[in-house]
Write a structure and sequence with these properties.
This protein is mainly α and about 220 residues long. Helix content is about 35%, strand content about 5%.
């Protein structure tokens, strides 16, 4: 049996004791650093005296600090490795109404995060239907006073959906791991449109990327 000092009150107690008989603090039995021979806390990653590593370490993916290899979460920032682990299980596809709700209300002007194919294409389909219907009605009123009113309605609708349409395109690009600035390919006639179409129909990238967790595989 050996005597060790309580880290709370300084009382010398047996290394077999679980708590200090004086202050009730839990007794932490120190370990010896193999490099300098000084006693250190068993929870220490590196020796505070010589800096030698005391156990296998890994780098926290969130804050970048060295943490124990077997740690389930970072003691500095709280990041859990389990957050980055994906089961690759496909999540239920959002309904037509859910996709519209996300694009028109929850993420109307959100250019961060990711959007899976169904969210993008449901929103695109809705705009195609409304746009086609409005243009049919406008054509029916050519030559009448209603034609001007229909033109105003079409213009107002186009303005209303411009921002959410741009936002969902950016999120769709994020979902396959590409920067939202790739939307500028639309400036290039034909080739740009074909390239964006290929990206928009591409499946979601599995797991987490720099734009967030996968909305499809989680």
């Amino acid at each position: 049996m050996a005597l060790i000092k309580c880290t709370e009150c300084g009382q010398m107690v047996s290394d077999k004791a679980s708590t200090c008989p004086k202050c009730g603090a839990p007794i932490v039995v120190p370990v010896t650093c193999k490099e300098c021979g000084q006693p250190v806390s068993p929870n220490a990653v590196t020796c505070p005296n010589c800096g030698a590593p005391l156990k296998a370490t890994k780098q926290c993916r969130e804050c970048g600090k060295q943490i124990p290899e077997d740690a389930e979460s970072c003691p500095y920032c709280g990041y859990s490795e389990r957050m980055s682990v994906t089961s690759n299980e496909e999540q239920p596809r959002p309904t037509f109404g859910e996709a519209l709700s996300v694009c028109f209300t929850k993420k109307y002007a959100t250019f961060t995060g990711r959007a899976r194919r169904s969210e993008f294409w449901y929103f695109y389909l809705f705009n195609m239907i409304i746009g086609f219907s409005l243009n049919i009605l406008m054509s029916a009123f050519i030559g009448s006073s209603m034609y001007t009113i229909m033109m105003v309605i079409v213009c107002l609708y186009s303005l209303a959906v411009f921002v959410p349409n741009l936002a969902v395109m950016v999120r769709r690009l994020h979902d396959i791991g590409k920067s939202g600035w790739n939307i500028l390919w639309a400036i290039l006639p034909i080739i740009g449109a074909i390239l964006l179409l290929i990206w928009f129909i591409k499946d979601s990238a599995k797991g987490e990327n720099k734009y967030g967790a996968s909305p499809k595989y989680n």
